[in-house]
Every structure is written in structure tokens, then in C-alpha cells.
Design a protein that fits this description.
The protein is α/β, with parallel strands linked by helices. Helices cover 40% and strands 23% of the residues. It has 15 helices and 25 strands. α2 crosses α6. The longest helix has 22 residues. The termini are far apart. The relative contact order is 0.14. The structure holds NADPH dihydro-nicotinamide-adenine-dinucleotide phosphate (NDP). NADPH dihydro-nicotinamide-adenine-dinucleotide phosphate (NDP) binds next to α7 and α8. NADPH dihydro-nicotinamide-adenine-dinucleotide phosphate binds next to α7 and α8.
């Protein structure tokens, strides 16, 4: 059985404890590889390696950092098929999605930040003719990056790329649920000539490895993506140590559909924004609000399309649109929310059940795309993050009403608005409490834009200069002329 190894000080090594966790393939439910069950001792060696590498890496000319990062991007790209298959087996998403979405995006992250650092500049503030201020932006030192299981390599590289581009050395932990592509990345980093210690990947559980990273006094900044509860725990430990924190947390995003929208375009995108990646994307629109005159038409067309198109099955099969749920625990959690929705008075319009596909995936964790109506906007199903293939439909009559419902959760990550009325689109965008608004589209991403949420969806922004600013310290120098 394949053994995943830690990547510390440029070497692929076993965890100090020599213990491993079974890593299942969610499409079969069977353990297919072993993930290091690392602990604080491995984090300690990773921090020591990162500290030792920092002086040289932070003084490496940015063109050389760019060359190495571009090489890493090229090597991932030339191994696209291997990476895509590994991601699909580890995570459960359809292979076409790994191939066309997830892995190409990891390549873009490395290339984007690897080259962005060549253009990164800082400010100067002249004070008339008697003084000038200029701002230095220097790397922080050793930083921690902790990422979740839903978009494994995509979100892992989204953090480590700006961190190393800016001259930091990194101790990173991918989710223990999906460690495989981070392991493949460590092999690529060695091949690309990334100096030892610049990136260290410690595999294992959040409660052991993640918390050791968070609490380590030599790690001066933490970039975390994951659940809101885990974010709270990280903030509780890191804030009194005055670490820089970037927290990208949960969401319960509204998808607001007005009767004047371009119906066909909206319908196609709404199927995607509801169920892509089995609904396991923090940006999915899980609460769909439909203006009442359109409600019945939308409901019928949406359900027909979901039933006809979203084939659930073997993620390696090209016809599959909905793959496996990432883990048994998560599978049970999603099903428990469907039960809760029924208890809360919800009417399941389609889906609602676990699926046992024929053949090799018969013991995998699959759930039908599920559409529910008849729930109040403030019930638990409509307030708590489910993070699976489950959406609710709610009619609305006025802008005021839908704004109230859209803004009623503790979350504020993203929102989608469908209308051909430009004035209304602007008005709504300004009033929705979220960090990201899409108008007549969804998941259209420009890596230069600020990315992140408000309220319990997080603190700080990733993307573009925001990420490079997060991973550097600003120092103002004032010279009297
Ligand atoms: P978790 O919060 O459970 O885990 C995220 C990462 O943190 C994992 O690597 C996990 O390790 C680790 N971790 C767990 N406990 C601790 C701890 N005490 N200290 C430090 N690290 C810890 O999230 P999931 O992996 O379940 O991911 C799903 C969540 O991520 C959803 O809430 C989703 O909305 C959110 N998310 C947010 C995004 C955003 O951009 N805002 C994007 C994508 C997802 P382990 O795997 O071992 O538990």
C-alpha cells in the first residue's frame, strides 16, 4: 500500500512516531494509502528546517524565486493526468473536474504568485519638500498554512504560493482526509530545485499537527482555510501570541434569482453553483431565493435538469457529474441534515438519499443531489453550513425581504444575484453582507481580486496583492530632507 511521507528539510521522511492513518478512497470506502500520523515532534523539525532556510530564501532575488515557482507549475502541468487521478481517488470528485478545474488552478496559483512577486511594489508618501516616507515590505519568517479537504491542491497552493513567493519559509498541513496531491507536490518541489526547508509539509490530524503549528512560537503568521469552529480555535490560540491571521471559513451563500433574469443562463449556472464538487465548495449557493412570479417555473425546470443531468457514480467514469462525498463522517453529516430538513417541515423535491452505484463503487459514500422547499429562512437547515449536495428553495416578494433573509445567517462569504436590471444589481450588491458578489455568473475568478468573507466566514483577504501584503510586514521609513 502506498505510504505518503512528510516533506521536511527537502527530504521525504517518515513521521517521528512511525505511525500512519489509513487513507480511504471515498468512492469505494476502502483504505488505499497510508498518511503519516505526525505530531508536535515533526512540526518542531519542520520549523527548525524553515528557520534555517529563511535567511537564504528571503535574500534570494525574486527572479530566482519566480524561476523555481514557474518550474513547479510546469512540472505539475506536465503530470496533469497523475495529479488529477490522485485528487479524484483521494477526494471523490469527478475526474473531469480534477483535470479541468482543480489541478489547472493549482498550476495557475504557482504561476500567478511566482510572477506576481516580480511586480509587487510598495508605496512612497512625500511630505511636501521636507520629508519622504517609504514602505518596506519584508517577509515575515516562518509561516503556517493549514488547508481543508474540499479543493485539496487548489487551496493548498493558494496559500503556499504567495507565502514562498514573498520570501517566507512555510510549515504546511494539508487535510489528513486528502493528503495525496500535497505529497505529489513535495516530490515536484524536490525535482524543481526548491531549496531545502523553504516548504515543509507535515501530514496528520488537525488536533495534533494543526494545533502544534498554530501554537508554535516561531511561526509568526497562520493562513487557515476550513470550518468556522476550527477557525475560532485557531484564533483563540494564535491571537494572544499576536500572530498575523488570515481565516477563510464557512459559508451559507444565498443565490438570489429575480424574475427578470436571463432564465436559461441562470438555470445552467444555478445547477453548477448548487452541486459542483458535490456541493463541497465554500462558495456554492446553498440557499436559492426565487422571486415569486418565477418560482414554479424555476422549480420545475431546476428539478428536471438536476434529475436529468447530475448522474451520480464512479468519479473515474467520464459520464459522472456527481462523485463521492469525501468521507464517511461527512457523508453521515450531510444525510443527518436531510433528516433534519424533513423534521423541520421541508419537502424533498428530488434526491434525499444515499446512492449505492453498481460495481466497484458499491461501498462508496454517495448522495443524490437534493432539493428541498417549504422551510422557513431561519430554521437550522437554512442557517447552518451543510457543505454537501443539498439546496433549499425559498420564494420572495420584495428586495427588502430577500435581503433580510440573505443576510440572516452568521456567515457572509459569497452571494450570487440574477437580474437584467443593472440598477437593482448594484443596489443589491451593496447591501448584501458578503465578501464576494457574483452578478449573472458564479465562480468567475480573477486571481488578482480580494477573496474572503465577513462575519463568521472569516477575517482577512487572500488573492493578488492582499495575499502578498498578508505574507509581508510593512515597515515605514521616514526621512527628513
Ligand atoms: P476543518 O476546519 O475541519 O479542517 C481544515 C483544516 O484544519 C484541516 O487540515 C484540519 O485537519 C485542520 N484542523 C482541524 N482541527 C484543527 C485545530 N484544532 N488546529 C489547527 N488545525 C486544525 O475543515 P474541513 O477540512 O472540514 O473543510 C470544510 C470547511 O472548510 C467548510 O466549513 C468550508 O466552508 C470551509 N472552506 C472555506 C473556504 C473559504 O475560502 N472560506 C474554502 C473551502 C472550504 P484535519 O483534516 O485532520 O481535521
Amino acid at each position: 500500500m502506498q505510504k505518503i511521507l512528510n516533506y521536511i528539510n527537502g527530504q521525504l521522511i517518515e513521521p517521528v512516531s512511525k505511525s500512519y492513518l489509513g487513507n480511504p478512497d471515498p468512492s469505494t470506502g476502502e483504505v488505499y494509502s497510508l498518511c503519516p500520523d505526525s505530531d508536535a515532534a515533526d512540526v518542531e523539525s519542520a520549523v527548525a528546517a524553515a528557520k534555517a532556510a529563511f535567511n537564504q530564501w528571503s535574500n534570494t532575488p525574486s527572479e530566482k524565486r519566480t524561476r523555481i515557482m514557474t518550474r513547479i507549475a510546469e512540472l505539475i502541468e506536465s503530470n496533469l493526468d497523475t495529479f488529477a487521478k490522485a485528487e479524484t481517488i483521494d477526494q471523490g470528485k469527478p475526474l473531469w473536474l480534477s483535470k479541468n478545474g482543480e489541478i489547472p488552478r493549482a498550476v495557475s496559483n504557482m504561476r500567478f504568485f511566482g510572477t506576481a512577486i516580480e511586480h509587487f511594489a510598495s508605496e512612497a508618501h512625500p511630505m511636501g519638500d521636507h520629508a519622504i516616507n517609504y514602505t518596506l515590505r519584508t517577509p515575515i519568517g516562518v509561516v503556517g498554512c493549514i488547508s481543508p479537504w474540499n479543493l485539496p491542491l487548489y487551496l493548498f497552493t493558494w496559500k503556499i504560493a504567495p507565502a514562498i513567493a514573498a520570501g517566507n519559509c512555510v510549515v504546511a498541513k494539508p487535510s489528513e482526509v486528502t493528503p495525496m496531491t500535497a505529497f505529489l507536490l513535495s516530490e515536484i518541489c524536490i525535482e524543481a530545485g526548491l531549496p531545502a526547508g523553504v516548504l515543509n509539509i507535515v501530514h496528520g490530524l488537525g488536533v495534533k499537527v494543526g494545533s502544534a503549528i498554530t501554537a508554535h512560537p516561531e511561526i509568526k503568521a497562520i493562513s487557515f482555510t476550513g470550518g468556522t469552529k476550527t477557525g475560532e480555535e485557531i484564533a483563540r490560540i494564535a491571537a494572544p501570541m499576536f500572530k498575523k491571521l488570515s481565516l477563510e471559513l464557512g459559508g451559507k451563500n444565498p443565490n438570489i434569482i429575480f424574475a427578470d433574469c436571463d432564465f436559461e443562463k441562470m438555470l445552467d449556472e444555478t445547477v453548477r453553483s448548487s452541486f459542483l464538487n458535490q456541493g463541497e465548495i465554500c462558495l456554492c449557493g446553498s440557499r436559492i431565493f426565487i422571486e415569486r412570479p418565477l418560482y414554479e417555473k424555476f422549480k420545475i425546470a431546476f428539478i428536471n435538469k438536476v434529475k436529468a443531468e447530475l448522474i451520480v457514480g464512479d468519479p473515474l467514469d467520464a459520464a459522472t457529474k456527481t462523485g463521492a462525498i469525501v468521507s464517511k463522517i461527512h457523508f453521515e453529516k450531510v444525510l443527518s441534515y436531510i433528516e433534519l430538513a424533513k423534521q423541520e417541515g421541508g419537502n424533498v423535491l428530488c434526491g434525499g438519499n444515499a446512492v449505492k452505484p453498481e460495481g466497484r463503487c458499491n461501498k462508496g459514500w454517495f448522495i443524490e443531489p437534493t432539493v428541498i422547499e417549504g422551510l422557513s429562512y431561519n430554521c437550522r437547515t437554512n442557517q447552518e453550513e451543510i457543505f454537501g449536495p443539498v439546496v433549499t428553495l425559498t420564494p420572495f416578494d420584495t428586495e427588502e425581504e430577500v435581503l433580510m433573509m440573505a443576510n440572516s445567517t452568521q456567515y457572509g462569504l459569497a452571494s450570487t444575484i440574477w437580474t437584467e436590471n443593472l440598477t437593482r444589481a448594484h443596489r443589491m450588491a451593496a447591501q448584501i453582507k458578503a465578501g464576494i458578489i457574483w452578478i449573472n455568473c458564479w465562480l468567475l475568478r480573477d486571481l488578482r481580486t480580494p477573496f474572503g468573507g465577513v462575519k463568521s466566514s472569516g477575517v482577512g483577504r487572500e488573492g493578488g496583492w492582499e495575499a502578498l501584503r498578508f505574507f509581508t510586514e510593512a515597515k515605514n521609513v521616514c526621512i527628513k530632507l
